[in-house]
Amino acid sequence: MERGRDPVEEASDESRDLHEVSTWEPRTPLDALAYTVYNGISYGFQAIVLLVALAITATLLVQPAILVADEPALAVFFALSVVPAALLAGFIWYTDITTNEPLGLLVATFVLAVLFATFAAVVNSVFAGLQAIPLVGAALFFYLIVGPVEEAVKLLAVRVFAYRSDSFDAVIDGAVYGAVAGLGFAAIENAIYISGTVAEADIGTITAATGIATVRALVGPGHVIYSAIAGYYLGLAKFNPDNAGPIVAKGLLIAAFVHATYNTTVGFVPDLVASLYAVPPSVAFVGYVIAFDIAVGYYLYRKIVRYRRAYRDVRDDTGPEPKPELTEFDPPQR
Questions:
Q1: What is the pLDDT of residue 321?
Q2: Residue 147: how many CB atoms within 10 A of its CB?
Q3: What is the C-alpha end-to-end distance of the chain, expressed in Å?
């Protein structure tokens, strides 16, 4: 976006020196010092945030590390629990019709999501008491705290690094990086949930790990879908700077809403389905999670399809053919 100009600058010709009248650039030693101090504070603040996140992450991973040291097989359950989410994130990456994103940026986004997820864990713990409010407590907790906070930290993992890269050069890239951030968040959340369940279980370690890893494997794809939606809007915001704030807010509102809706409804809908249709509760749970993810995922799918079609159409009109399409991905033309 072009910067605004003061009336003096607009009316003057280029021969007039307007330094510290209506323009500014570092000229004096004091200017250089101010420039250095600003950069130091800016980068220093970012470094502090990362160090705090790293410290919290290390603390939260102590228990999983101890359990893996005692029972190495648990590492397999940690890995398996993120396979569905990883496959979904890979699919979203594969549907990017523009250019392949650098592996370094994808890895950095994953790591940042792991680190920033710990901020969400702290905030959720602080406000967990909301759930004690009769009738509406759980809904308030999920809609006001869990959904907004978790989706915000996942989007932050994209915004602070990948978003600033020249490789982030298309709207759809936001969905790709958002999906990777969701994968990173799911990875650490699964590790914490699995280790906590195993540590408290009275049954055998492998039995307990099998059950909770299966549940977490079902939950993981949701994180990928929600943050991919928010990421898509972040990508849209990058190329519409005049309306960037509202666009990002819209993406976060959608992602937070569907996230909170899942958390709120998964606690009672499967039980209700099981009682109405005489199916095992476990089957009702699996069916509900899959159905919810498909419904929300279809919203993301339609946005990706629309982008792909538009990209293909403009490339056909103005330039060489894009990379080969996934013919099985796009619905038939009408």
A1: 52
A2: 24
A3: 38
